[in-house]
Amino acid sequence: MNLLIILTAQYLYIMPIIYFALTLIFSRMRRPLIILSLLAFFIDFAFVKLLGSIISSPRPFVSEHIHPLISHVADNGFPSDHTLLTMTIAAVIFTFNKKVGITLALISVAVGISRILAHIHHPIDILGAIGIAIFSVTCSWYILKRVKLLFNL
User: Fold this and answer.
1) What pLDDT, in 10s, does the model give residues 5-41?
2) Where are the alpha helices (DSSP H) in 27-151?
3) For residues 96 and 31, what is the distance between their CA atoms, to the nearest angstrom?
4) Largest pairwise CA distance in the chain
5) Bridge partner list, 79
6) Partners of residue 58 on adjacent β-strands
7) Which residues of 19-49 are buried (b: 16+ CB within 10 A; e: fewer)?
8) Is residue 76 a contact partner of residue 58, using CB atoms and an 8 Å limit?
């Protein structure tokens, strides 16, 4: 079981990244995907900097004095970068393809849960990442829709 947790926590996040890269290469919606992604990742970054400085979440292996399944730096765990990245990709893809977006979101949740089970994140770190990702993509979508940059390219 530990091997499955370790593999999921360390490597499963690569799958949404590869799917996203292939979508950017082969999709007819390349330009809207790039614009939406850039704005969403910019908002992600701003919120991570802001909330990361306000919310302190020592990693479980630090605060609970337990051995993590994966070696990791003992920094602030909020939010989970892996979950934030994969959920942002899932939410961006969801705006163009609901089925694939939901599949990628489930993968993102699996990554987050495995990082909790590996003792390198608390649930709040994962939930925060999911919330930031969905918020940033939703805001980006409405901003771009409002300024007519998403589909009028």
Assistant:
1) 999 999 999 999 999 999 999 988 888 999 999 999 9
2) 30-54, 60-63, 81-94, 98-117, 123-146
3) 12
4) 54
5) none
6) 76
7) bbeebeeeeebeebbeebbebbbebbeebbe
8) yes
- Residue pair 45/51 in contact by the 8 Å Cβ criterion: no
List Cβ neighbours of 145 (8 Å cut-off, separation of 6 or more): 151
pLDDT over 70 at 151, yes or no: no
Enter the DSSP assignment of 27.
-
Q: What is the pTM for the complete model shown?
A: 0.93
pLDDT of residue 152 exceeding 70: no
Contact 68, 120 (CB under 8 A): yes
**In angstroms, what is the C-alpha Rg of the chain?**
16
Task: Give the closest residue to 106 by CA, choosing from 15, 37, 31, 21.
Answer: 15
In this predicted structure, the answer to whether residue 150 has a pLDDT above a threshold of 90 is no
Residue-averaged pLDDT of the chain: 93
Instruction: State the Cα–Cα distance between residues 58 and 63, nearest whole angstrom.
Output: 6
Question: What dihedral angle (degrees, nearest 10) is formed by the CA atoms of 114, 115, 121, 123?
Answer: -30
State pLDDT tens for residues 91-109: 999 999 999 999 999 999 9
C-alpha to C-alpha distance for 147 and 88, rounded to whole angstroms: 21
Alpha-carbon distance 127 to 83, whole Å? 9
